[in-house]
Design a protein that fits this description.
This protein is mainly α. The protein contains eight helices and five strands; from the N terminus they run αααααββααβββα. The chain is 52% helix and 8% strand. A three-stranded antiparallel sheet has the order 3-4-5, with helices on one face.
Length: 231
Amino acid sequence: MNAPEWEPLAGSGARLSGHAQALTDDDLHEDSALPAWSRAHVLTHVAQAADARTGLLLAARAGQVGRQYLSEQARAEAIEAGARRPAAVVRSDLHRAVQECLTAIREHPVQLWDAPGIWLGGHRRPVRGVVTGLRRELEYHHVDLAAGYEPAGWPDDFVVTELSRVTARMDKRADAPPMTLTCPTTVRVSITPPVDVTGPPAAILALLSGRSDGTGLDPDGRALPALPPLS
């Protein structure tokens, strides 16, 4: 992996890991921004997500087709169990898992990025998705900690990439109105009549990803349209 791809990913990992180390034991067991999850749940999930991605890469290097998780139930049960560990263990496990995944990404043979893996839900896709998937885990869930990291702190390259991905994904969903992203940053939501939502790119991404109620955005003087949770 070349430096322009590696350095932003490593930076996201360092920021989250550093922030997690600064949280007190009490902080870690307080509520996160995600329903029914403490901050320990969030960090446990990110660690296990990193481990799952490391497993996909190592399997590909061994000539095997790895599986991200055995099942959604197994994934949920592992998060619940992991969140009950001592705070120091949760923090150290996050750091270990992220660093191991970053190392696996950096050392992955170029010719094996298109090797298949079985992702959550049973979909078979190239393991190259590990890179963008880990970046999303690190940046979105850093905000979900509800410990001071805000969408305005998201790196510009992450926001640009995710805005295009999220609007395209929403555009294909039956439970979401079609959306079109234009520049300067405006999302046109194709309801009747259409709503043009303008504002800082990070604030628009926060709205579309379910991490903001839209405060600070201009929806053309109208109420913000209802959007389904990003899944």
